Amino acid sequence: MHALANPARFLRIARPLTGVTLLLGVVLVAIGVFGGLLLTPAERFQGESVRILYIHVPTAWLGMAGWSGIAIASLAQLVWRHPLAGIAARAIAVPGALFTGLCLITGSIWGRPTWGTWWEWDGRMTSMLVMLFLYCGYIALSNARNERGSVDRIAAIYGIFGAINLPIIHFSVTWWNTLHQGQSIGFNGSKIAPELLWPLPFTMLGFSMIFVGVVLMRMRALIALNKREARLRRLVQA
Amino acid sequence: MNHWPFVIAAYLVVAAGTVGIIGWSWRAMRNAERAVDRLTQASAADQ
After folding, report:
1. Complete DSSP assignment for A31-48
2. Which residue among B9, B13, B25 sits closest to A102, beta carbon to beta carbon?
């Protein structure tokens, strides 16, 4: 991790990696979506709506993985004063919020034909909505601190404390009696039939690679903005 | 109930969101990196 602490070294790796991750991500998502929409059979109870699984699960995973990334980067920023950690956390926030929002929307669309309702205030959905609000708070906080030019310590502390919501989301289906189904895929295997399951790894990996590509682009933009600001400051002082 | 309109709506929302964030992030990155390049060229010309 410390090897990437130098922005110039990071950019040397990030520049070629941005295009590769995006391209691979799009190809994998295309295979998964094609398989999920056209090749897999309809489910016995849920019918055709089960196909929403192939986009709903990756968006949920990325919403949670995004906040995990913010928490780890915030910890690296506070403990090791890693120069790129704050930039990484800020770069993750917007795509993380987007995928959390997409998870809530696709879940709501899935809920209407299967449960007969767009929304239910149950543990899983409410804790996911709380995470969207946490993301909005983090984005507002990190932008506000940045405008004042001060170190983003408060946003980093907020990022670490916000991670408390992650186990709540994960265990919500166990702790509370919810409308949302329980865990289908775990370390002990899957409850989903293999003929329905196979496109999911493609969309999971594909959307994850797109997420990485987007974060790299946003990190590059933030590094360039910081560099420009520093140079302009030096020009004014000279 | 026909489930296909729900499936199509969900896929369209995710496609729009994903394409949107890729486009927005790419544009922000290009603009920021070009601004740095312009500044570097301008300061090199001054010297």
Report:
1. HHHHIIIIISPPBTTTBG
2. B13
